[in-house]
């Protein structure tokens, strides 16, 4: 029985009332806890409640909402990674936070069609915390689930429901045994993890003043200060920065889970050097119906909350856990590297009419150009147990050299 089933019929406070009750019971709560309740309350959280966040009718587009070519190019890349691992008899891809599963479907369909040997070796595991999105995955991937090629991992809860986010509840749920080579993939997973917000006055907490939510600042912890010193900057007057311990814990778990294989992390984000040059200082935003707002408190549970990813910190976490990382590249460089050789034939294969080709060309352009998603999105590729020479030949890294 799922947590949602168990909670069915139990009177549920609104997100706003839950937050207020928790503050009344425990005192001011850190921003990360507010974000966790808003996004991941098991019944009413933004991601748990329904599966309508994506695409035109939702609040935002991700790359897989733009066109299937994103998944098709990544299928090509995964097949190459499988070759770099010496074409093992079995390989597992584990996707974290697959949402409604469009990416997985595109990868599996294209691998089936174009890379049958790779497809025959593949098990595709989907680890999604939202009950509503898990149900959507059943629809999107029904054929592949039915054949056993795709599997939805069923962690009881991957987010802590305890008042204090607990890294120990974070876990990787793979299908195959640890000796099977593994590729962990995550697109826009890290930006959806709860963050702390820090400023010159300390760490942001939420308190209640009469019945109004108010911001109060408490001292930053030693870990947070260390994070800022190593991977970020010190905030100046009026500035707010994010510290994501949850992202660090996840990266560590990912790296530890890959005994031999790769991690491919795609997200919008920045490096410490960019912050030092004055950019990306304070990136937490709310998204609703395709507009972004700096007001994080307007509609708790009804708007997406997200922060850009600190790739300097993520890279360090992967390396610290023993993975080898490649220099960070843009989504544009990555996709151009994969698609160049075939002149992006993966995008145009289904087009029959010239006007269809024009439409697809525009969608592809959106994925690769700086004015679209090409420069904001970055790709972190990490590996373990693969020779430097083999990694150097990976086509997605071609434009990094
Ligand atoms: C911004 S969406 C991205 C969805 C998809 N990757 C895409 O590109 O369309 C973030 C996804 O991560 C999922 N998620 C967040 N935390 C998670 C966790 N701890 N375990 C599994 N899934 C999680 C959310 O439910 C949501 O589906």
Tally of distinct domains: 1
- The CATH level-2 architecture is identified as 3-Layer(aba) Sandwich
Beta-strand proportion: 15-25%
Distance between the termini: 50 Å
Q: Could you characterize what this model shows?
A:
The chain is of the alpha/beta class and 401 residues long. The chain has a single domain, classed as Rossmann fold (3-Layer(aba) Sandwich), CATH 3.40.50.12710. Helix content is 39%, strand content 20%. It has helices at residues 3-7, 15-26, 31-40, 46-49, 63-66, 69-84, 102-114, 116-121, 131-140, 142-146, 222-231, 245-257, 272-276, 311-320, 331-339, 345-348, 354-368, 388-392; strands spanning 29-30, 91-96, 122-127, 150-152, 182-187, 196-199, 202-209, 212-218, 241-243, 261-270, 285-288, 291-293, 304-306, 309-310, 324-325, 329-330, 377-384. The strands form three sheets. Strands 2, 3, 4, 5, 10, 14, 15, 16 and 17 form a nine-stranded mixed sheet that branches. Strands 1, 6, 7, 8 and 9 form a five-stranded antiparallel sheet that branches. A three-stranded antiparallel sheet has the order 12-11-13. A hairpin with a 2-residue loop joins strand 6 (196-199) and strand 7 (202-209). The protein is globular, with a radius of gyration of 21 Å. The relative contact order is 0.14. The model is unreliable at 160-168 (pLDDT under 50). Residues 47, 54, 62, 64, 96-99, 103, 127-130, 133, 158-159, 187-189, 192 line the site of S-adenosylmethionine.
